[in-house]
Amino acid sequence: MWGADARTDSLQFAIALPVVLATIVTGSLSYVLVPQLVAKFKNPKEERAAWRLASFVGLVTLVVSGGISFLLYLFALPIAEALMEQKQAGQHSAAGGFLRILSWQVILFGMISWAQAVLHSQHQFAVAASAGVIGTAAQLVTVLFFGDRSLELIAWAINLGSVLSLLIHLIPIVPKLGFPSAGAVGLGGLLASLWPLVLGAAFLRLDPMVDRIFASELDQGSLTHISWAHRIHAALLALGASSLSLVALPQLAEFYSKDGIKGFSTHFALCARRISLLIVPVAIGVSVFSVWIIRDLLEGGKILPSDSQRVGWLVTSFMGLFLGASLAELISRGFYVLGDTKTPTLIGVICLVVGLVVKYVLFQQIGVWGIALGISLYYSVTATVLGWALLKRSSREIFTGCAVYVTQAGLAAGFACGCCFIIYSSNFIAALLPGTLVAAPIGAFSYFIALLALNNEEAWRCWRMINSKMRTRDKSPVA
Predict the structure, then answer these.
(1) Which domain holds residue 157?
(2) Helix 29-42 and helix 47-74: axis angle, to 10°?
(3) Which residue of 2, 5, 301, 468 is surrounded by the most CB atoms within 10 Å?
(4) What's phi and psi for 300, nearest 5 deg?
């Protein structure tokens, strides 16, 4: 396993830029495409028009993101020299080489974003979710078996996972695509909603690159440490809150189209309560046991205990990012369903400007910890302001019951942490296998039991559903 050295810093720097560019160009596509496709797919007479619109947007995404990938490939070295603070001879060259390999992430990420928007508009969430899991698994398997040979192979493994994910996304889509076409009304509405998001993303999504530019000025390994912390929080978001928000988007669009603000507010409150049950225990559990978790995930080979400890505390310092981004994603999707893309973009830009100033001041005082705390503050403030703005835009019912759910989730998470602490502090378990492999399922189970004891409505609904399926299976005739 590669440690936190200069070449690893170069790889982590190169990973960020293609993702930032892809997010700017196509990351907002699903927010505006899904509501339009949902409305068309609901009407059988417009289904062919929906597939033509999807094909048209897919073609544009392919051309634009493909062009950016090609330019990034051509100018990889000059870009690395312009953005990265040189710490040792050859570091720019290494970063340029990694950036050239990873330049194709722009077109791959762009097409995956488009395919996810099409699938989500048809409520095909399982395909998109499984594609992401399989693609990530392919990356991890390649890195585990061959990653110690060269860092270049790790970069190619990232591309391999994205290619595999894209192919799985395309399997149910390609047979249904039609001649690329977009009516003037549909295209005009799409562009009118999209342009504020693209312009806002061009500013907002540069934040991770700013962090890496800051970190490249610090001691060797700092850029790698902060990149690992970023990626862990990105994984937490992708596996939990982001997935729930993606599912909520087409549902909110349907409720709004049927019952207006009343239907939207009722279902949004349900989504907000459910997401609180997910993010509160993750935030508390990961913060309390971050050093242990990072030790089990990363430590070994060239990754030292000092690396694990620093990354663990960075993960805890970043927790405002996880909480703020989880809530901001859901709230922003609420605005998009209401046809308002300008308000969340404007709020995000203003909060980011303030956050960058605070982050720079903190960075000058406490180094890498200033980056982490500045990000946490920025995302927390952004989510708070967005929530207030959506409250004014819709109705006060959008957060009904959230305070009770947050309280119940906090109490249940505290009980689960107590159970997990017994596992982590057990020398017997530590001698057999990593404590996180045991603590994670036990923590989840004890959290669920505590929610049942607190009479949480969603926990009991889940229990009744599980119990019903078990009874149905037991009553089924034996072949």
Answers:
(1) 1-205
(2) 160
(3) 2
(4) 140, 160
Token digits for 14?
């190169």
Q: Which has the closest alpha carbon to 283: 321, 245, 335?
A: 321
Residue 474 in domain: no
What rounded mean pLDDT belongs to the chain? 78
* In 184-318, alpha helices (H): 184-204, 207-215, 222-239, 241-288, 290-298, 305-317
Does residue 138 lie in a domain region? Answer: yes
pLDDT digits (tens, 9 = 90+) for 438-474: 888 999 999 999 999 999 999 999 888 888 776 666 5
pLDDT for res 435: 77
Q: How far apart are the first and last CA of the chain?
A: 50
| Spatial CA neighbour of 282 closest among 101, 99, 440, 102 | 440
Cα gap 425→405, rounded to integer Å? 30
Assess contact for 337 and 249: CB atoms under 8 A.
Answer: yes
Coil, strand, or helix at residue 303? Answer: strand
3-class secondary-structure state, position 240:
coil
| DSSP structure string for 56-98 | HHHHHHHHHHHHHHHHHHHTHHHHHHHHS---STTHHHHHHHH
**Residue 189 covered by a domain:** yes
pLDDT tens per residue across span 337-395: 887 878 887 888 788 888 888 888 888 888 878 888 888 888 899 899 999 999 988 88
Tell me if 119 sits within 8 A of 125, measured CB to CB. Answer: yes
Give the percent of the chain with pLDDT over 70: 75
**Which of 82-91, 161-170, 203-212 has the largest mean confidence?**
161-170
Whether 132 is in a domain gets the answer: yes
Say how many residues make up the chain: 479
* Structure-token pair, residue 295: 């030790």
300 three-state secondary structure: strand
Per the structure, how many domains does the chain have? 1
Sequence-separated (6 or more) residues with CB below 8 Å from residue 278 = 240, 241, 244, 326
CA distances from 78 to 83, 100, 416 (A): 9, 11, 50
Nearest to 142 by CA among 128, 127, 163: 163
